[in-house]
Amino acid sequence: MLRFLPIRRRQTPPRCLTPNYDFFGSTIIMQTVHFVEGSFYHIYNRGNNQRDIFFQARNYEFFEEKIQRYISVHCCLIAWCLMPNHFHLLVQANRQSCTTVRDKPIPIHALTEGIRMLLSSYSKAIQKQEKSTGNLFQQKTKSKIVDSYLTNAFHYIHQNPLRAGLTSRLEDWKWSSFRYYFLREGAESLLPLEAARQHLSVNWDRFHDESYAVVPTLIAAQLL
């Protein structure tokens, strides 16, 4: 079960640099990005050579546990979707995101380190399961600021399994936050619906219908 931290209101924040670097030879690299406290980011990566990264239901569950352990403690997690060969996260950076956790050979911040731990620990588990070697993920994990397209990013992430033809109903795809918002399954009192209402331009009485609205192509291009 994923837990949520409350979303904080935007303030005039410091910027923190997430540099390109090799994670202990695992060639998992973050795209250079300035995380800004209070801003929203679409973070995503896919399997190396577009190969699958999830092979069994327990793999999806394990990855969600890793998101809880390494990502949501360093930012405000807004939405996520896990697909057979890639994943999407929508987060709001907070002060913890920009906290320096180590400074040699270059400064590394908490959210960057959390992404590294998420991918490296999951990769090791899958390599052991599949008896495989080599990179599971593409080398660069990408992060795109989406402050101007937040609601579109929210819907775009949830619509992934629909666009891929994996389901005809968003609520039937188990591996996304859509079910947490629509059915409130597993989220209990930790689902930040009240906080989300402050930032997302969503008519929550029509949330299900609005979730199926097509994200314009030009806007979708700005999310990647």
Descriptive terms for the model:
single chain; 224 residues; alpha+beta; Alpha-Beta Plaits; two-stranded antiparallel sheet; 8 helices
Task: Summarize the structure in words.
This protein is an alpha+beta fold and 224 residues long. The protein has one domain (15-222): Transposase IS200-like (Alpha-Beta Plaits, 2-Layer Sandwich). It has helices at residues 57-70, 110-130, 150-158, 160-163, 178-182, 193-199, 207-210, 217-222; strands spanning 15-18, 29-30, 33-36, 40-46, 76-83, 86-92, 100-102, 108-109, 140-145. The strands form 3 sheets. Strands 2-9-4-6-5 form a 5-stranded mixed beta sheet, with helices on both faces. A hairpin with a 2-residue loop joins β5 (76-83) and β6 (86-92). α1 runs antiparallel to α2 (110-130). The longest helix is centred in the middle third of the chain and has 21 residues, at 110-130.
